[in-house]
Amino acid sequence: MPKALVVADEVDERLWTGAVRSLHVDLVVGAGDLPYDYLEFLAGSLDVPCVFVPGNHDPDLSGYTRYGGLSMKDGFPTEWPGPAGGINADGRVVDVAGLRIAGLGGSIRYNEGPNQWTQRQQSRRARGLEWRARWRRRRDGREVDVLLTHSPPLHLGDRDDPPHRGFACLHRTIATLRPRWLLHGHIHPHGEPVPDRVVGTTRVRNVVGHRIMEFPR
């Protein structure tokens, strides 16, 4: 039963200390809009892998390739701006700590900042992710356990203001992949309780701040 420290959007200063070592988890999962050195600290202090997707306030990580300890962009060695050792799951399907995680970062486009997509652009990206997950499932029979996104699905925990609207395509992605969980950030609850939403067999959870979650197989 893998256990994860799931974080998004809001730094918890209590975790940015040696006290975090008292947590017993198998991985760190980041749903975006957190300083990358915060993710590095959490994963390094806990000595566990870190899987994340970028949010709309994070640096653009597109175009980087990594082989072993070498990072490349446009054919040249360069320093990767993401968290050291972190696994960027944006647009990918990754197997970490016994979990299969499919990732789709970013928010709806509302200005010229990085990691922002129109509904059509994100739908195209989601179709690519769905294809990769189906190919992996045909190869080894394993389903996706967690769909990790920065933004929620449209009308499932999003807001009416333009920067915080969810993505319509995620409804199709949920129906296609049937993950047990969709974990997202981006929507700050400001102290209000945020109930999980359920779509078919998928539970949608806002993880802004931090959560300790277990994932029964």
From TrEMBL:
<feature type="domain" description="Calcineurin-like phosphoesterase">
    <location>
        <begin position="20"/>
        <end position="189"/>
    </location>
</feature>
<protein>
    <submittedName>
        <fullName>Metallophosphoesterase</fullName>
    </submittedName>
</protein>
<dbReference type="InterPro" id="IPR029052">
    <property type="entry name" value="Metallo-depent_PP-like"/>
</dbReference>
<dbReference type="InterPro" id="IPR004843">
    <property type="entry name" value="Calcineurin-like_PHP"/>
</dbReference>
<dbReference type="Pfam" id="PF00149">
    <property type="entry name" value="Metallophos"/>
</dbReference>
